[in-house]
Design a protein that fits this description.
The chain has 281 residues and is an alpha+beta fold. It is built from 8 helices and 14 strands. The relative contact order is 0.14.
């Protein structure tokens, strides 16, 4: 299912106020609080009936997806009035915002819905601010553990295990013994990854399968090195993770080595590689 950005009849007027946003440190703290509120709603539902059903594209959705998104969208509208919000369930319902060339939000209120349904804890809340087609702020929170990873342009990246105190984090140098490669728990096809690693001359010592945007965060925290994704994803799946990883010194690039960009007409991503640095050829 494709989504198209609506044309704006008032683009010039809207652009006049497009950059009138609170400073990034304030936005980072406010979005951290919104992610915590969304996580509270998610865990409330996680403890009972999940309300699972299928969307039009036959992907699953739960009551938690909708409850978390309602919290985040309302909070972002109050925080940055007039700024477009591209949120997964709003998009699925056909509520496609108009992008005017200024900053906009990308929200995946419950990334890893399949893992949520499996109750394995590998799901996240994702909030990203995009400016000039790049994520300048990313917040990722794992509701089951309370872990939070954040990244902002010019501010670096940090993480919290208690939800209150934050410590800086950066990507690690490549281990001498070989890289730790991350893959999706629900979508990995190891034969394809094996071929790609061999063709790129990349030595992999360890592989980890884990759900949702946690893969970006593990690389950002120096606990992994590379995550190739050669399957379909949407912009709200990757923007927050990319914001965190880039702020920690890593990269998210397409197969030509170009940084992943946002605000594309269909909000679809190309195949990409998230990594701590450039590897291989």
């Amino acid at each position: 299912m494709g989504y198209k950005v609506a044309a704006s009849p008032a683009m010039a007027a809207n652009r006049m106020t497009s950059t009138a946003l609170p400073p990034l440190p304030a936005l980072r703290d406010a979005c951290t609080d919104l992610a915590r509120q969304a996580a509270s709603e998610i865990m409330r539902i996680y403890a009972g009936d999940l309300g699972v059903r299928d969307k039009a594209d036959r992907s699953p959705v739960t009551d938690a997806d909708h409850a978390a998104e309602a919290v985040i969208v309302a909070g972002l509208r109050a925080l940055t009035p007039g700024r477009p919000i591209v949120a997964e369930e709003e998009m699925a319902a056909g509520r496609v915002p108009t992008l005017d060339g200024g900053p906009f939000w990308l929200v995946d209120p419950l990334d890893g819905t399949k893992e949520f349904i499996k109750r394995n804890g590998e799901f996240t809340v994702n909030i990203a601010l995009v400016e000039n087609a790049r994520p300048v702020l990313g917040i990722v929170l794992a509701p089951a553990t309370g872990l939070i990873w954040r990244g902002a342009q010019g501010l670096g990246a940090d993480r919290s295990s208690d939800g209150l105190s934050f410590a800086p984090m950066t990507v690690r140098p490549p281990p001498a013994r070989g890289l730790t490669a991350l893959a999706s728990r629900s979508h990995a096809i190891y034969s394809d990854l094996d071929i790609w690693f061999r063709n790129e001359g990349i030595e992999v010592a360890e592989r980890l399968q884990i759900g949702s945007s946690l893969k970006f965060c593990l690389i950002a925290a120096g606990e992994g090195d590379i995550y190739p994704r050669f399957g379909p994803t949407n912009e709200w799946d990757t923007a927050a993770g990319q914001g965190v990883l880039e702020a920690a010194g890593g990269q998210v690039v397409d197969t030509a080595g170009v940084a992943l960009r946002y605000g594309k007409p269909t909000f679809r991503n190309p195949h990409f590689i998230a990594r701590s640095r450039a590897f291989g050829r």
